[in-house]
Amino acid sequence: MLSSNGYPPEGWRVQALGDVADVRFSSIDKHTKSDETPVRLCNYMDVWKNAYIHNGLPFMEATATEEEIERFTLQADDVLITKDSETKDEIAEPSVVRQDAAGVVLGYHLGLLRPSPELAYGPFLAAQLRIPEFRAQFIKKAAGVTRYGLGLDVVRSAEVWLPPVPEQKLIAGALGAVDDAIELTENVIEQTRKLKEALVQNLLTDGLPGRHTEFVEVRLGDVFQPRKESGVDALPRVAVTMHNGLVNREEIERRMETNLRDDQHLLVRSGDIAYNMMRMWQGVFGLAEFDCLVSPAYVVVEPTGGLRSDYAAHLFKLPATIRRFHLFSQGLTEDRLRLYFEQFAPIKVSIPRSVDDQARIVELLATLDYRIASQSDELTQLTEAKSALSQALLTGQVRVPTVEVASA
Question: For the domain 215-353, what is the CATH superfamily, name and number?
Answer without folding.
Answer: DNA methylase specificity domains (3.90.220.20)
